[in-house]
Specification:
The chain is an alpha+beta fold and 139 residues long. The chain contains 3 helices and 6 strands, in the order βαββαβαββ. The protein has a 6-stranded mixed sheet, with helices on one face. β2 and β3 form a beta hairpin. α2 runs parallel beside α3. The longest helix is centred in the middle third of the chain and has 18 residues. The protein starts with a strand and ends in a 5-residue tail after the last strand.
């Protein structure tokens, strides 16, 4: 039987401002099971609740949120094995997204699925990123 662990963020987490959004919508920022970490889709939502106007800025905030979750688990982007990105205007925004992605994922490339969607959970959102990471073997 596998052990399942749900991440609870510190109340003063600078990327998220705590757990209020996770508590409100009743989900975890990440769940670890069977050696994999499933990180909930991250959007360009700043800790103060604001959303950047450009898709590239939103992608940067979303990647910083993913980095924060990975960091709480002792991981980084080299541990990411799968990424799914959701784009409201994929044609206009993909080049900017790729430029931002290259700041965070420079090697050890994950499998990546790119999806165009009609809308995301909140008006004004342009991109959402979901990742799966592998837990490092402890030695």
């Amino acid at each position: 039987m596998s052990k399942i662990e749900r991440l609870r963020l510190p109340d003063d987490d600078p990327a998220f401002g705590g757990n209020r959004i996770f508590d409100l919508f009743q989900y975890s920022p990440a769940v670890t099971a069977n050696g994999l970490v499933f990180i909930a889709g991250q959007i360009g939502l700043r800790a103060d609740g604001s959303v950047p106007e450009s898709a590239a800025e939103q992608a940067d905030v979303a990647f910083r949120r993913i980095a924060a979750v990975l960091g709480h688990l002792g991981l980084d982007f080299t541990d990411v094995v799968e990424m799914v990105s959701y784009h409201v205007d994929i044609g206009a925004d993909l080049a900017g997204f790729r430029a931002v992605k290259e700041k965070y994922i420079r090697s050890e490339f994950p499998a990546w699925t790119i999806l165009g969607v009609a809308a995301l959970a909140r008006p004004g959102l342009a991109v959402e990123i979901k990742v799966v990471a592998a837990v490092r073997d402890s030695k």
